[in-house]
Specification:
This protein has 86 residues and is mostly helical. It contains three helices and no strands.
């Protein structure tokens, strides 16, 4: 059970917190949305690469896609929570 918690922590929780933290600390800048956009574009690029990996059987491509996806989700959540209409 402890191993499952570590895997969940490394695959979901840490990338989400990292994405949320980066977006939270950059929220003062008017172009902070570029962090979320770049994370989403990197996620798409990683997903395309993971569909046809150069090294068959390697899990790194899928893990990179999952990490970037959760990074983008964390960044998006902070962006939505801190959104202010002017």
């Amino acid at each position: 059970m402890e191993m499952h918690m570590k895997i969940y922590l490394l695959a979901v929780v840490l990338p989400t917190l990292l994405g949320a933290g980066v977006r939270f600390f950059c929220r003062k800048f008017s172009q902070a949305w570029l962090i979320t956009l770049s994370a989403a574009l990197l996620t798409f690029a990683a997903w395309v690469i993971a569909q046809n990996p150069s090294v068959r059987g390697s899990e790194v491509y899928g893990l990179r896609t999952i990490w970037l996806m959760w990074f983008a989700i964390g960044s998006s959540l902070v962006g939505l929570l801190t959104f202010r209409k002017k």
